[in-house]
Write a structure and sequence with these properties.
Blueprint (H helix, E strand, L loop, with lengths): L5 E3 L4 E5 L2 E4 H23 L7 H24 L1 H6 L14 H16 L7 H25 L14 E3 L6 E2 L2 H23 L7 H18 L16 H33 L1
Parallel strand pairs: 1-4
Antiparallel strand pairs: 2-3, 4-5
Helix pairs in contact: 1-5, 2-4, 5-6, 5-7, 6-7, 7-8
Length: 271
């Protein structure tokens, strides 16, 4: 019966020499940023923005993502441990990054970057960075698969994975569900941008990104093993509770973007 499932026994290490190691997750994480850089470069070239600024933007986003994701994991999912052992917060090599914290970190880093670029507003940057961010989510969840983490609940579906490094229970490949969802969202955002480009209402892509990504997260969380032990007896997981405000915020941004576009069109028509 076990042969009906996918037996996953992949080592998370690509190369390991003593204490030095290169992990699949790290390689995929770096690839996500490099691909994102390429996408942003094409956007900057299309809209006549200085490509040289992208080096600084990449540094801002990398710092914001790592710091935000790490602090999010520590204080959203296991606050009692990390408050009692604050030195463990810096031990990022032991794993532990939270996408919600990463989102907050990205929002903050982009705001800091935009303060010195008057020709590129905060919302302008958010709209365009939403595109490679969705692709980054696609790849990072593949990194979670190589780490045998972010596990799904036990199931008997034909495509279930047995994560040999964890146990012998067939489980939902939740990492792949999320990865595929984010890939679809990336394609959708890229298609919208290519068709409308600079004519898009300000904030629309940001709103669509927040609603679609975190709605997918809410749905997939139902078949995932809960990461926060204290949420086991709660109706919703911590991931779902953190996603709901993001969805609502995205919906508000979409409404404001459409209203702003309509008002702008009305003014032009009157003129």
């Amino acid at each position: 019966m076990l042969l009906a499932y996918i037996y996953w026994d992949v080592t998370p290490h690509i190369v390991r020499l003593g204490s030095f190691e290169i992990r699949w997750y790290g390689l995929i994480f770096a690839t996500a940023f490099l691909l994102g850089f390429g996408i942003m470069r094409s956007i900057y070239q299309r809209e006549g923005k200085p490509v040289s600024d992208l080096d600084s933007l990449l540094i801002y986003m990398l710092a914001g993502t790592i710091i935000g994701a790490r602090l999010g994991h520590c204080f959203f999912y296991d606050p009692s441990y990390y408050l009692s052992n604050p030195e463990a917060i810096l031990q990022i090599w032991k794993g532990g990054l939270a996408s919600h914290g990463g989102a907050v970190g990205i929002l903050t880093s982009i705001y800091l970057f935009s303060r010195r670029r008057r020709d590129r507003s905060y919302v302008w940057l958010l709209d365009r960075i939403a595109i490679p961010t969705a692709l980054g989510g696609t790849l990072i969840r593949l990194g979670n698969l190589f780490n045998s983490e972010i596990l799904g609940r036990p199931t008997d579906v034909d495509w279930a994975f047995i994560f040999a490094r964890i146990d012998n229970h067939p489980r939902h490949p939740a990492q792949l569900y999320e990865s595929f969802s984010y890939l679809v969202i990336f394609i959708m955002l890229m298609t919208i941008y290519r068709r409308k480009g600079p004519e898009l209402p300000k904030g629309l892509l940001t709103g669509v990104f927040l609603v679609s990504v975190f709605s997918a997260r809410i749905g997939i969380e139902f078949i995932k093993v809960r990461q926060a032990a204290f949420s086991e007896d709660m109706a919703l997981s911590m991931g779902q509770l953190l996603s709901i405000p993001m969805v609502l915020l995205g919906a508000v941004i979409i409404v404001l973007a459409i209203r702003g576009k309509n008002k702008s069109s009305s003014v032009h028509n009157v003129s």
